[in-house]
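Students often ask why we bother encoding 3D structure as a string. The short answer is that it lets us treat folding as translation between two languages. Here is a chain of 312 residues written in the first language.
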Amino acid sequence: MNNKTIHRWQHEHVFGQDQVRPGERRTLWVIAITATMMVVEITTGLAYGSMALLADGLHMGSHTAALGITTIAYVYTRRCATDSRFCFGSGKVNAFAGYTSAVLLALFALLMAWESVNRLFNPVEIAFNQAIVVAVIGLVVNGVSMIMLGGHHDHGHDHSHAESQHHSHHHEDHNLRAAYLHVLADALTSLLAIFALLAGKFLGLNWMDPAMGIVGATLVAKWSLGLIRSTSGILLDHQAPGAILEATRAAIEGIDGNHVTDLHIWSIGPGIYSATMAIVSDTPGTPEYYKGLIPKDLGIVHTTVEVHLYTS
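And here it is in the second language, the structure alphabet:
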């Protein structure tokens, strides 16, 4: 048996992870916009003595850093796609970056809640006019950023229907979703700030500013926990969604005499899976035969099949 003969059974484990993902370029633009807004808010906050603007500028800075993690993950995934140290390519870097960003988002929510509670008991003077103008600009900037990143992402809601669950998990870029949630958190903060600042300026309800901060922190924490849950499942090799497992089993057992006795399918990157299975059959075929039965649209790119002859 020579090398030329054995080569037909060998293959790379890149699975398209060396390609530039759509979210990478969009994230770079959003970083530029967010960093610019951060400088504007910090500068005007210092110029007008507004703690609200300064705090929001520093908050923008934290999200700029988080978006930087997103970009680094995209670049690292591409450059290390062919690194043999990764068993199934570098696709899980995407989930790891999403998990890291989600943790930062949760920490930001805690800081936001702490500062808001503190301001309820220790109010600070607010420069309403300047704060409202910059908050509106911030909202517009965040709205543009959300459109650039794409507004179709799931925010932690559960899907009861198997098909919608399959669709959601099959195509989700957790790294891009983390970036989207950071920008969404910025937009929510700006929106709540505008509402609170208007209430304080015209109705004298200064307590609304920290109260809205608590509301915003609660929502941000909920989003971050949802992302932590979904990304940690990938990092810990949870089974693929039930719809993918059922479709794979049905495709194999749809042939008389075939029984899948062991089946494991797990995510190895955005929308791609690896599978191992044991099949018992009265008339066993080759592993390649069974691999060919698996529907192509399930995203299973690497399969290991163990075949056994059924004996009574």
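Translate back mentally: Residues 152-170 have pLDDT under 50 and may be disordered. Keep this in mind for the problem set.
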